[in-house]
Amino acid sequence: MAETINEVKFSDAGMAEIQRYISHYPEGRQKSAILPIMHVAQAEFGGWLSPQAMDKIAEILNIQPIEVYEVATFYTMFNLKPVGKHVLEVCRTGPCCLRGADQVIDMLKEKLNIEEGETTADGMFTLKPVECLASCGTGPMLQVREKFYENIDTEEKLDQFLETMRNTEVETPYHQAQ
Ligand code: FES
Fold this sequence. Notes:
GO terms for molecular function: oxidoreductase activity. Keywords: 2Fe-2S, Iron, Iron-sulfur, Metal-binding, Oxidoreductase. This is NADH-quinone oxidoreductase subunit NuoE. InterPro entries: NuoE-like (IPR002023), NuoE_dom (IPR042128), NuoE_N (IPR041921), Thioredoxin-like_sf (IPR036249). It is an enzyme of class 1 (oxidoreductase). By secondary structure, the protein is an alpha+beta fold. The chain folds into 2 domains: 5-74, Arc Repressor Mutant, subunit A; 86-166, Glutaredoxin (3-Layer(aba) Sandwich), CATH 3.40.30. The protein contains 7 helices and 4 strands, in the order H-H-H-H-E-H-H-E-E-E-H. Strands 2-1-3-4 form a 4-stranded mixed β-sheet, covered by helices on one side. Strand 3 (142-144) and strand 4 (147-149) form a beta hairpin. Helix 1 runs antiparallel to helix 2 (34-44). The structure holds FE2/S2 (inorganic) cluster. The site of FE2/S2 (inorganic) cluster has 11 residues, from helix 5. FE2/S2 (inorganic) cluster binds at residues 91, 93, 95-96, 132-136, 139, 141.
């Protein structure tokens, strides 16, 4: 990862996407593009936002770095330290817990040999319990990038899910944007 803000470089495709988001807003209102730009940065820089990457976003939007840090620390979808290939965001809010979310988290800890917030030794998975993902009727559930995996209510389903993820390549979401 880059050591200084000057070493933080977006790809040409990433910069084009950033400019496209900024163009959606009137002059002086570029800050409104902060969320999609943070997603571009996270996708470009290995799935997490370093302080230098956030400083770069602030520079691009002509805002104070603290304004980026505030957003990054509010939303759990942004990672503030290096993560694995797949970040398993497991909902642990009430309705999902009633349907076994705690057991899913415990099984993941045991199967992956990690604690919450940690990444497996092979760099494949990061375990990240989060609050409600608005799929309460299909819990226990988890999210990996933009995709929901629902009704993970047996160990067999969890094993199938992990096997699927091990064979899933990561796509860069913003390249699919219209
Ligand atoms: S409680 Fe789990 S998605 Fe809402």
